[in-house]
Specification:
mainly beta, AttH-like fold, 2 domains, 14-stranded antiparallel sheet, 9-stranded antiparallel sheet, 5 helices, 27 strands, 47% strand
Length: 488
């Protein structure tokens, strides 16, 4: 395998990636900071290339955002912060002020447990105590995308009984990676024990066996996260420094002093969702199986998910987006409810200069409420190989009360991963070229990632085994997954 395209040097970018950065993007100094953007002519009706507007509108927006921030302590943006070099990421297991949640591979609580949906609880704290049972699960997810969109790192730490029939236990690690040479790597591992320690200044988790260890350490203020991997599948580190405040499924900011508010963390019936880090500066430095290197800097985030049923029991599919363009950062997720086909639930967040501009759970046009609306595109870009052949999406955030609209065009530029589940359906992940901003104002270019999933009414157990359990087959499982998945 050629190593010439792998990331090199301190910058984390190889020659190919540096050239594409120069081709696609150029720096623009705007509102007191350097933004990655490209200014284009204004061909009427083509919103993906509209680069018009006035500085007066921009300064007015900045003033508006400042006033909103002053009204809410937790709206103050974190801003770019270098990853700390003097902070001790060592986990102290003997601190009496910490709470420890421990689970062995096959531990299951027979009967009801404590299932927290509280809006004011710390987002990274365990939601299910003392153990998961046969229906509920929880997950800590972390991801990162290079500035040119070509390299991906995504991993999740799970406590989940859903796949007990594999015989490997309930403690799972999933890792998805795109290397700079275009290679896609998928790793799935099971471990003997998971421990989450919740302390006054941090939350840390370790999923480990005698011969391997995967861990995360997140500061309590949700500003910094460090992951460490020590196994033959992946060895290295991931670092994330947040620039945005945390948010909940309903669009609101997380407020640890705001008390519990019913429904705030619920995305759809039975599925709960909060985002500790919507966006931040990230860096990954790892070696994967076969000695291949993954190293890059870019944008990243973190997500918390927990549910009272398995994925196949609560949803028919979803579309999830995390992206940025100039001063804008946004997330979007809609879920199609399993028990009422066609009923959809939404969550959307739009940030400007790291301040929350629009947060909503409304996904259809409204005359009164802020909403986020998505439309699939079928023209420019590439599509996946399953039934949904869209080549990208148009995502709009609208605030009727402010008479404002922001539109972003997302074009698929790379298939990051795909898994078939039969009947022409499956899961696809894409890297996106993103262009957008306020309608009638300055437009910016950036990058993002989209995951779209559609499940058939019935998924054979052996297909589920293939998708979620093939990881324990060993080094050859990636090829097996790629080969068999093509039949769907």
């Amino acid at each position: 395998m050629s190593r010439s395209a792998l990331y090199k040097g301190q910058s984390g970018l190889g020659e190919r990636e540096r050239e594409q950065e120069r081709t696609f993007l150029c720096p623009v100094h705007f509102s007191g900071q350097w933004l990655v953007a490209r200014r284009l002519p204004h061909p009427s009706g083509t919103m993906s290339k509209v680069f018009s507007g006035t500085m007066s509108k921009t300064f007015a927006l900045v003033a508006l955002f400042s006033s909103l921030a002053a009204a809410n302590l937790y709206q103050v943006p974190i801003g770019p912060q270098p990853f700390p070099t003097d902070y001790d990421f060592t986990t102290n297991w003997d601190n009496d002020s910490c709470t420890i949640s421990r689970s062995k591979a096959f531990d299951i609580l027979e009967g009801p447990n404590t299932f927290s949906t509280a809006a004011d609880a710390h987002i990274n704290s365990p939601k299910i105590t003392p153990l998961i049972n046969r229906t509920n699960w929880e997950q800590w997810e972390f991801d990162g995308l290079s500035h040119n969109g070509l390299s991906l790192f995504l991993t999740s730490f799970s406590r989940d009984y859903s796949y007990h029939f594999f015989g490997k236990g309930n403690l799972r690690i999933e890792v998805y990676m795109n290397l700079a040479d275009g290679t896609s790597v998928r790793e799935l591992d099971y471990v003997d024990e998971s421990i989450v320690i919740d302390c006054p200044t941090y939350t840390a988790g370790i999923w480990n066996s005698s011969d391997k260890s995967y861990s995360f350490h997140a500061t309590k203020d949700l500003k910094h996260i460090k992951l460490m991997f020590d196994s033959w599948r992946v060895n290295g580190t991931y670092k994330l420094s947040a620039t945005t405040p945390p948010v909940h499924a309903d669009g609101s900011l997380w407020d640890p002093e705001g008390g519990d508010k019913p429904g705030v963390t619920e995305l759809s019936p039975g599925l709960y969702y909060s985002i500790p880090v919507v966006s931040g500066e990230m860096e990954v430095d790892a070696v994967v199986s076969g000695g291949r290197k993954l190293g890059f800097r870019g944008k990243g985030g973190s997500t918390r998910l927990w549910a009272n049923n398995g994925w196949l029991g609560i949803t028919e599919g979803w579309k999830a987006i995390r992206a940025w363009a100039g001063p804008y950062t946004f997330t979007y997720w809609h879920v199609t409810f399993k028990k009422d086909w066609g009923t959809m639930f939404y969550s959307g967040h739009l940030f400007y200069n790291d301040q929350l501009l629009v947060g909503t759970r409304v996904g259809n046009v409204s005359d009164t409420d802020d909403y986020a609306r998505i439309t699939a595109n079928f023209d420019a870009g590439i599509s996946g190989r399953f039934a949904d052949k869209n080549t990208g999406n148009t995502l709009e955030f609208v605030s009727p009360s402010r008479d404002k609209k922001w539109r972003f065009e997302l074009e698929h530029i790379l298939v990051q991963y795909e898994m078939g589940v039969g009947n022409g359906d499956g899961l696809s992940g894409f890297a996106n070229r993103v262009v957008g901003g306020e309608v009638g104002g300055l437009q910016y270019e950036g990058r993002g990632q989209t995951e779209q999933t559609l499940f058939p009414e019935y998924v054979s157990q052996w297909v589920t085994w293939l998708i979620f359990g093939v990881g324990f087959l060993g080094p050859g499982k990636d090829y097996a997954l790629e080969f068999v998945s093509w039949f769907f």
